[in-house]
Amino acid sequence: MPWQGNGWKPTSITRYIRSLRTSTGVAIVDTDCGEGFLKALSNPEGPHVLGCELVGSLLADWIGLPTLDVAIVDVSDDDEIPLATGGKAGIGPAFISRRVNGASWGGDIDSLRLVDISEDISRMILFDTWVRNCDRYRPEPRRRNLDNVFYVRHYETDRSQVVLTAIDHTHAFTCGRELSRRIAHIDAVQDELTYGEFPEFTELRNLAVEAAVRQRLHEMDIAEAQRFVGMVPATWVEDVEVKAAWASFIAGRAGFLARPAATADGRNH
What we know:
Layout: E1 13-19, E2 27-31, E3 34-39, H1 48-62, E4 70-75, E5 92-98, E6 102-104, H2 109-113, H3 118-131, E7 137-139, E8 142-144, E9 149-156, E10 159-166, H4 186-189, H5 207-217, H6 222-229, H7 240-257, H8 261-264
Antiparallel strand pairs: 1-2, 2-3, 3-5, 4-5, 6-9, 7-8, 9-10
């Protein structure tokens, strides 16, 4: 079954295209369902970031935030996929996201006003805050990564639509560090920082959408969180206690942010 119910589920890699010099050693490959960006077990940041990427992408989809189509595809003995960071793609399950036509946001507010994306901006801020994603925008210590705000153009019959899309969730939950049982510590669950809010986003926030997202977060219980974490292959995250703590964080932080905005992030929205 396709991860996001969108019909995209590659089952095999058919061709290596090229490698990118990124922190996770991304390789562009072709599959039986089209081209994608592959992140393999042997990536320089380790297997845990693959789990963060998968769960982050699925949670974004769960709250209605546009993200790339994703899947898990096996790298076999026959696949010769060199990585720009050195070595080859490790044999076993790899994370893959569908290759699409698009461009990174340049950081200007004018381009944000060109399309009706206030709903996506609001969802992105709450999503990044929920999963503590430090690799888009973090206020302190400050980090600003425009590459992870991506415009995707969708074509429908005689018109096209530009969609603001959240990409790359490898640094969600732990900011790139290895997952551990400490993820469920109260300091993480009740972190009051607002993530993902570029200064250019502030005036475009949609309070009605944010209220709807908070209501959606009310529905994230421990069973649902365990379902998402349970999709992560054991070769990526083996420790069952770590997975249990991860699910506890996801559900607990959802409950924390589902409260009225003034108590969840210290401001009246």
